[in-house]
Design goal:
Layout lengths: L1 H29 L6 E3 L26 E3 L19 H12 L5 E8 L3 E8 L4 H13 L7 E5 L3 H7 L11 H12 L38
Parallel strand pairs: 4-5
Antiparallel strand pairs: 1-2, 3-4
Protein name: Sporulation protein
InterPro entries: Spore_lipoprot_YhcN/YlaJ-like (IPR019076)
Keywords: Signal
């Protein structure tokens, strides 16, 4: 009887150790030892017979999925090092490339600041309002949602915004200088308002903290 109980106990212990080891191995497979991230494109599932994570044609078609978890140790903070930032030059390049593909838009100059996008373009359109709406919404599809977009269908404005190309957010009096240019751009068609709470440029209408934001055409009563 004792031998039977001893054998049974030993078997259970081995099974538990095996399960624990399997769980640990599964955890290692899901969580890289260097962090707490799960990235789908890092794994090749059985159905990916070609060895590509999410398709056989191009990685550019893959969906992106990443999950982050807090450290299980109380008070421990995940060290992510240097987080990615918005490259304004590349964003301006992308916006110009996309806008020049729109109908009746022949030449596009784009300036991206820390919170605004200024676009001057040459067009042969017969519907300036509609073209302005398309250009503006193309830019809004690229930048973070807090950005405001201002457009002008006047090639002469290209030189106006080009002079800001070598400046940055710390340049002296840069806000006042850009504000003057924006007010000039607002004389041109800006397209439709984005929603009942936002005007055509993405400015919140009559928002509570309006004094913290440099809006120009948001419907807030002038003081």
């Amino acid at each position: 009887m004792k031998k039977t109980l001893l054998a049974l106990s030993t078997g259970i212990t081995i099974s538990l150790v095996g399960c624990a080891q399997m769980t640990e191995n599964n955890r290692d497979a899901l969580y890289p030892r260097s962090g707490n991230t799960i990235n789908v494109t890092d794994r090749n599932d059985l159905y990916n017979v070609q060895g590509l994570p999410n398709g056989t044609d191009s990685r550019m078609n893959n969906f992106g999925y990443v999950r982050h978890q807090k450290s299980p140790v109380a008070g421990d903070v995940n060290n992510y090092g240097v987080l990615p930032t918005l490259n304004r030059e590349r964003v301006a390049d992308l916006i110009s490339k996309l806008c020049v593909q729109l109908p009746h838009v022949n030449d596009v100059a784009t300036l991206v600041t820390d919170e605004e996008v200024l676009i001057a373009y040459d067009t042969d359109t017969k519907n300036r309002f509609e073209t302005a709406d398309q250009v503006k919404k193309t830019a809004l599809s690229v930048v973070p949602r807090y950005y405001h977009v201002y457009v002008a269908d006047d090639p002469r404005m290209m030189k106006e915004i080009e002079r800001f190309g070598r400046l940055d957010s710390n340049s002296r009096n840069i806000d006042q200088i850009i504000d003057t240019t924006i007010k000039e751009m607002l004389k041109y068609p800006q397209g439709r308002k984005l929603s009942d709470g936002e005007n055509a440029n993405g400015e919140m209408i009559n928002e509570i903290n309006d004094h913290l934001d440099r809006d120009f055409n948001d419907g807030t009563p002038k003081r």
